[in-house]
Write a structure and sequence with these properties.
Keywords (chain A): ATP-binding, Nucleotide-binding, Transport
Radius of gyration of chain A: 21 Å
InterPro entries (chain A): AAA+_ATPase, ABC_transp_ATP-bind, ABC_transporter-like_ATP-bd, ABC_transporter-like_CS, Oligopep_ABC_C, P-loop_NTPase
Protein name (chain A): ABC transporter ATP-binding protein
Largest interface: A-B, 54 and 33 residues
Structural class of chain A: alpha/beta
Mean pLDDT of chain A: 85
Order of helices and strands of chain B: HHHHHHHHHHHHHHH
Shape of chain B: globular
Pfam family, one (chain A): ABC_tran
Number of strands of chain B: 0
Distance between the termini of chain A: 17 Å
GO molecular function (chain A): ATP binding
Oligomer: heterodimer
CATH topology of one domain in chain B: MetI-like fold
């Protein structure tokens, strides 16, 4: 049993103008202790919807999210159970995720659940600040006295104050400049290793995910098209979409080539193409792609593409549906 | 990987710096206020001159007006025969010595008149304001938390009705219901006619009665207060509730509220520590304005309830072209607005560290 199990999760939004939009369409993922799982994809592919559903900010339409084997309840006004509190999130925008009217110290103190919190809350606040690399007099200051990177450290400290097992970080460094990005990412990864947390790291930055994630999952239009150990996904991408993403990265090498962009845009999630969702943009699309692609295991990687079905020959379509 | 927050320094030193900052800020604001008041006297002086007719024609009877000697005597008595700059200069030097002049209508000193009428207004403005702030904040918070549900809809419709109700109409309706139909309220005034007013200390009947220990008088005064306070509270609550509701809605959608919920804080704690504080900003803004307008007199409400407040005084001064009284009221209103604004700005700093006097 994994620390965090996401099983066949679907997230739907209903709107009057566009009807029902299925932003996440049957996603399964596992996060283990001390492991960083990177989820990458273009804007609008549903990765943020998935993150929000996992932490309970959006209701899950079908499927389950299990933390240590027990389901996580959606976030409502009712007080969160001690079990659900073990999953914490780091938001994208460090300017909106701290209360501008309260000191850092008071914001850290009122969620404190670490073992030593009952006896010495002030000491715990200092320990948390130190853990994220901030001076202890930061506790008396207000969020507007900090830079974006420092605020994101505070946000991480606040998440750690709840003594979590799992962190869900939704684009935690996108709002930061390049140098603070590196610092905050290093901090997150170090904490995951030291404290034995599991982290679901969501980003559109494939290079960044390559640097830090143990497992990479690539999402396209609400589904995971490829997943596996990061090194293998990077070294031999199985799905044409993963390959396209990697080819689109600028690279420094002995024989420099221009990055190859992927044509087209992510289609509207309200009008998903039939068969393989990537078909309209896929450089290797075939006739057979009008059918639902099979999910195939190659080594430790999983890929949902007709190419492998032909190579491995005879895997019945849909037999391993939803495994990804 | 240790990073220092900007502008390092011990908290104690920060606090001291804050105090001197605040002192400098307040003295600057007072200087601005004085300039403003000077401007107000000039403007009022000029505007009154622009009104057709003069104090003599407004205050003397027809027969007296036909006698040029009487008119000349009247004008000489009030200094109206002097050139305008001289009139203004005389007025200004008097004001600086604390003399606001004599009202042409009441024949008493304007300062004395203000000291009678202002406490009366204060007596209905203060309770209205307090009630409105408490009710408005509570109802606004309730509506925001129950966003788009039945409770919220009821509040929205209710406040819209409250906003659209003219104050004189509401005054007449409550008089009709509570005085005429139910007979539980007096029809107006500050005290029943048979009651000897308590010794004047603050000028507020309820306070003076309480100080004198005359609780029957106190109760009578409270009964007289009830209806005007009810009307003024209703109207202020309607405005306040809407502002509080929208401010709190904005805050409730913030990521830090989600984080607070996610880390398992109980709802009451979140509302108290995170939401209420943000909702206080509009409460202060709107209450400041509402309080200033209540203090500068609610002419219609005071008129209907026969309440001898600033509004009535201002109305009579204006209709009688009673120059010293008009000037006195204008100065008072200007003073109220600038003082309330200063208070509001200082309170902002207390509530929001980002705008702590810069």
């Amino acid at each position: 049993m994994s620390l965090l199990e996401i099983r066949d999760v679907e997230v739907e939004f209903r709107s009057r103008s566009r009807g029902t939009v299925r932003a996440v369409d049957g996603v399964s993922l596992d996060v283990e202790r001390g492991q960083v799982v990177g989820l990458v994809g273009e804007s609008g592919c549903g990765k943020s919807s998935l993150a929000r559903a996992v932490v309970g900010l959006e209701p899950v339409t079908t499927g389950t999210v299990l933390l240590d084997g027990a389901p996580v309840a959606p976030l409502r006004w009712r007080r969160r159970s001690a079990h659900d509190v073990r999953m914490q999130m780091v938001f994208q925008n460090p300017y909106g995720s701290l209360n501008p009217r309260r000191t850092i110290g008071s914001q850290l103190r009122d969620g404190l659940r670490t073992p030593a919190a009952a006896t010495d809350p002030d000491g715990e606040v200092r320990r948390l600040l130190d853990l994220v690399g901030l001076d202890e007099d930061a506790a008396q200051r207000y969020p507007h006295q900090f830079s974006g990177g420092q605020r994101q450290r505070v946000v991480i400290a606040r998440a750690l104050a709840a003594d979590p097992d799992v962190l869900v970080a939704d684009e935690p460094v996108t709002a930061l400049d390049a140098s603070s990005q590196a610092q905050v990412v290093n901090l997150l990864v170090r904490l995951v290793r030291e404290l034995g947390l599991g982290m679901l790291f969501i980003s559109h930055d494939l290079a960044l995910v390559h640097e830090i994630a143990d497992v990479t999952a690539v999402m396209y239009l609400g589904r995971i098209v490829e997943s596996g150990p990061t090194d293998q996904v990077w070294a031999s991408p199985q799905h044409p979409y993963t390959r396209a993403l990697i080819d689109a990265l600028p690279r420094i090498s002995a024989q420099p080539t221009l990055p190859v962009g992927l044509r087209g845009e992510v289609p509207d999630a309200a009008r998903i193409p039939t068969g393989c969702r990537f078909r309209p943009r896929c450089p290797r699309a075939m006739d057979v792609c009008t059918g639902e692609p099979p999910v195939v295991q190659i080594g430790q990687q999983w890929s949902a593409c007709w190419l492998h079905a032909q190579e491995t020959a005879g895997t019945p379509a849909g037999a391993t549906e939803g495994r990804a | 990987m240790t990073t220092t927050p900007p502008s390092g320094g011990a908290p104690a030193r920060d606090r001291w710096r804050g105090v001197t900052h605040a002192a400098r800020y307040i003295s600057r604001r007072i200087a601005i206020t004085l300039t403003l008041l000077l401007g107000v006297t000039v403007m009022t002086f000029l505007i009154v001159q622009a009104v057709p007719g003069d104090a003599a024609s407004a205050n003397l009877s027809e027969t007296a007006l036909n006698d040029p000697e009487v008119v000349a005597a009247y004008r000489a008595k009030w200094g109206l025969d002097q050139p305008l700059p001289v009139q203004y200069w005389v007025y200004l030097t008097n004001v600086l010595q604390g003399d606001l002049g004599i009202s042409q209508q009441t024949g008493r000193s304007v300062l004395g008149d203000l000291l009678t009428y202002v406490p009366a207004t204060l007596e209905i403005a203060l309770p209205s304001m307090l009630l409105a702030v408490v009710i408005g904040t509570a109802v606004g918070l309730y509506a925001a938390v129950h966003h788009d549900r039945t409770g919220d809809q009821v509040v929205r419709v209710g406040t819209l009705v409250g906003l659209s109700t003219p104050s004189f109409w509401l005054s007449l309706v409550v008089l009709y219901v509570f005085f005429y139909l139910l007979g539980v309220s007096p029809s107006g005034g500050r005290l029943s006619t048979w009651i000897v007013p308590p010794e004047r200390v603050t000028g507020m009947t309820t306070v003076d009665a309480a100080l004198a220990g005359r609780w029957d008088v106190w109760w009578d005064a409270v009964q007289h207060l009830a209806l005007p306070v009810l009307v003024l509270t209703t109207l202020t609550v309607a405005v306040l509730t809407r502002f509080v509701r929208s401010a709190m809605l904005e805050v409730l959608d913030a990521d830090y509220i989600r984080a607070a919920r996610a880390k398992g804080l109980p709802e009451r704690t979140i509302l108290r520590r995170h939401v209420l504080r943000a909702g206080l900003v509009p409460v202060i803004t709107v209450s400041g304005l509402a309080f200033a307008s209540l203090l500068s007199g609610t002419v219609l409400v005071e008129q209907i309830f026969g309440w001898p407040g600033v509004g009535q005084y201002a109305y009579r001064a204006a209709s009688g072209l009673d120059m010293p009284a008009i000037m006195g009221v204008s100065l008072f209103v200007a003073l109220v607005y600038t003082a309330v604004n200063l208070g509001v700005d200082l309170l902002y700093g207390v509530i929001d560290p980002r705008i702590r006097v810069s």
